[in-house]
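Quick start: read one record
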Amino acid sequence: SPSSYRHHIRAILRRMPGTTDDTTESGKAEVGVTSSSNKAYEVAPTSALSLAAVPFKRRFLVPAIVLGLLELIGIGKSFVGVTALQDARLRLWPGEVHALMGQNGAGKSTLIKVLTGVHPADSGTMRLAGREIRPESPQAAQALGIATVYQEVNLCPNLSVAENIFAGRYPRKNAAGLWAIDWTRMHREARELLARLNLNVDVTQTLASYSVAVQQMVAIARSLSISAQVLILDEPTSSLDDEEVERLYGVLRQLRDQGMAILFVTHFLDQVYALCDRITVLRNGELVGEYPTV
């Protein structure tokens, strides 16, 4: 469970060389690094890590060998005459919603495109569950369990809801010696995936017949169908009304509680503090900092 995972992280920190588990004036534990041999960078405690017991004002250092589910370290990316990313960093933990923020041109979109295989990184390292990765295409990123829902839903409006969820991976059956799409199974599994998101729609209807909010849910259901560990949402609320935003929040909190790592890109600070556990801020392609929201 997310709770047991968070306690496990604390136990790891206590056992690591060069770390201390001191007590603050308020009697609450604070983890820190005392050895300069451990490469570390400053982050703030987060409720997603169950380090909310540490007062918000108290920062701590986490050694780089304590890995999150996803780590991007020293990412660099340049285009002709433009440096889009320079030593950019990002870390996601299981069971958290993490906001990625910055002004236009800060490098948010480029960082996402590097992570999802749209652009190759010029430098840096990406690790997923401790294993170095370098996806060469969005399909390769999906195969690794990294799914993205873009501001403009990039599904096929002329296909049915079920077909969009399983596009490229249609379940098949052997009928009279020939392989054919197993429509019954596909419709059943599509309904089951949408039920996990508390959505009840006719999966045989075309995607275009539903609202943008429903289309986003279908895109999220597609990420569940590939057993995604990391879900990236790029400005997902820009086309939604207040009721639809709250519904999306409920789904994302549910997925977070199930252990998924969610990267939430937005310009709306009120949404960040309503939903997210931590914030990473970029400026001019570089990391400004990583902060808690509570």
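Helices lie at 2-15, 108-115, 138-143, 161-165, 183-195, 212-225, 242-257, 269-275.
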